[in-house]
TrEMBL record:
This protein's UniProt keywords: Chromophore, FAD, Flavoprotein, Lyase
Protein name (record): Deoxyribodipyrimidine photo-lyase
A Pfam entry, by short name: DNA_photolyase
Taxonomic lineage of the native organism: Bacteria, Pseudomonadati, Bacteroidota, Flavobacteriia, Flavobacteriales
Binding site for FAD: 214, 226-230, 254, 257-264, 354-356
SUPFAM superfamilies xref list: Cryptochrome/photolyase FAD-binding domain (SSF48173), Cryptochrome/photolyase, N-terminal domain (SSF52425)
One annotated GO molecular function: deoxyribodipyrimidine photo-lyase activity
Keyword Ribosomal protein: no
Cofactor field: FAD; (6R)-5,10-methylene-5,6,7,8-tetrahydrofolate
Length: 441
């Protein structure tokens, strides 16, 4: 089979309103969609990782959708930097299309593939699909990126027109799909992963009432008051353009949360080192503690602070954690236990179904006070007052911590007042010390 055009699915596991697929179909015939289970990513994951199962189930559904159009999805398992050039050579491919990914490792991967395809006289074209505005589309008048969300949001909204929320009419060019031989999709076990589902995957469609009432319900963890669409945004099973259009028409608070996603993606693109280093460099001078027993208690939800414990148990059991609770547990690890935010970020990366590097790093650095538009270092969430405000009847806590209120529930592993004084002193010391370890005058 020769003269194919390839469309490479990555974080865009759908046909409808897919920017890169639209571009591929409009520019060429015999467009062959492919997906690669990337061993560079999979080899680092546990064999029962539920995100892999979610992707696998989605890929099966995507393949069936292509079958309805008389086409097929080719699914491979391996290293994309090898597989994509091999497919280009084997099938005489002149064009490869995809949607852009802004994570540092993805940018390096795509740069390598771009250079390899140049040597094969094949173009490699990316489109904007997972965000409304990318890279330098929303910047200050001097061309520099925003570091504070509110002015970024204002400029974002000023720039927004109906054009940016238009649906790409993929279906108008669907006849340009390749009608070639279908390749069977291997069982997940062939990739070394289990196909046993232990966590419930959020539905793709939600009642519009949830978005409409979002500003009233978003902070109450016992309510079904959030959309739970983050996993679908992460893997592109839903269009950000269509969701943003609905949000703009329905609820500004929810709409603003979608803008936060763009903000964090933009920050990671401009500052890739922030995935491992404090955005505010002076925060890397903080002398963190590490107590294995305390860290394990935090991971397992045995800290003696019921709101923290409920959140961690929800995460461990479901792969989900309510956003308000994410802030509480992150603040607790960084400021009550004085543990490095990177430990928490990596734990969330292992557990969250909706793990997204940009948002995860951004959220953790916000909690630690070290990131863009971060909570000031002296803002320390009190888990008890947070419970009194957002779970006053202990509904959320009792769901996840059934032994709460009995002799089996542990005592607090750290005292709030003492922990608060300790972290304030430690932060002040770091922020008042220069890079040579000398106290500033």
């Amino acid at each position: 089979m020769k003269n194919l055009t390839l469309f490479w699915h990555r974080r865009d596991l759908r046909i409808h309103d897919n920017a890169g697929l639209f571009k591929a179909l409009k520019q060429g015939k015999n467009v062959q969609p492919v997906f690669i289970f990337d061993t560079n990513i999979l080899n680092k994951l546990p064999k029962n990782d539920q995100r892999v199962l979610f992707i696998y189930q989605t890929i099966k559904e995507l393949s069936a959708s292509y079958n309805k159009y008389g086409s097929s999805l080719w699914v491979f398992h391996g290293n994309p930097t090898q597989l994509i050039p091999e497919l280009v050579k084997r099938h005489g491919v002149e064009k490869v299309f995809c949607n852009r990914d802004y994570e540092p490792a993805a940018i390096q991967r795509d740069k390598f593939i771009h250079e390899a395809l140049q040597n094969l006289n094949c173009s490699f074209s990316g489109s904007k699909d997972q965000v409304i505005f990318e890279k330098d589309e929303v910047v200050k008048p001097d061309g520099n990126p925003y570091h504070v969300f509110t002015p970024y949001m204002r400029r974002w909204k000023e720039k927004l027109t109906d054009f940016y929320l238009k649906t790409y009419p993929v279906e108008n060019y669907i006849s340009n799909l390749n009608k070639g031989t279908e390749l069977s999709i291997p069982d997940l076990e062939a990739f070394g992963f289990s196909d046993i589902q232990t966590q419930a995957f959020p539905p793709l469609r939600i009642p519009k009432s949830i978005i409409r009432d979002y500003h009233n319900t978003r902070d109450i963890p016992s309510l079904d008051g959030t959309s739970r669409l983050s996993v679908h945004l992460r893997f592109g099973t839903i269009s950000i353009r269509e969701l943003a259009k609905t949000a703009r028409e329905t609820n500004e608070k929810y709409f603003n949360e979608l803008i936060w996603r763009d903000f964090y993606q933009m920050i990671l693109f401009w500052y890739p080192k922030s995935m491992n280093h404090a955005f505010k460099a002076e925060y890397d001078r903080i002398e963190w503690e590490f107590d294995e027993v305390q860290f394990l208690a935090w991971c397992e939800g045995r800290t003696g602070y019921p709101l923290v414990d409920a959140g961690m148990r929800e995460l461990n059991e479901t792969g989900h954690m309510h956003n308000r609770i994410r802030m509480v547990v992150a603040s607790f690890l960084c400021k009550h236990l004085l543990h490095d935010w990177r430990l928490g970020e990596r734990y969330f990366a292992e557990k969250l179904l909706d793990f997204d590097l940009a948002s995860n790093v951004g959220g953790w650095q916000w909690a630690a006070g070290s990131g863009v538009d971060a909570a000031p270092y002296f803002r320390i969430f009190n888990p008890t007052s947070q419970q009194e405000k957002f779970d006053p009847e202990f509904e959320y806590i009792k769901k996840w911590v059934p032994e709460f209120g009995t002799a089996d529930y542990p005592k607090p592993i750290v005292e709030h007042k003492w922990a608060r004084e300790r972290v304030l002193e430690r932060y002040k010391k770091a922020l008042n010390t220069n890079s040579f370890g000398i106290l500033k005058k």
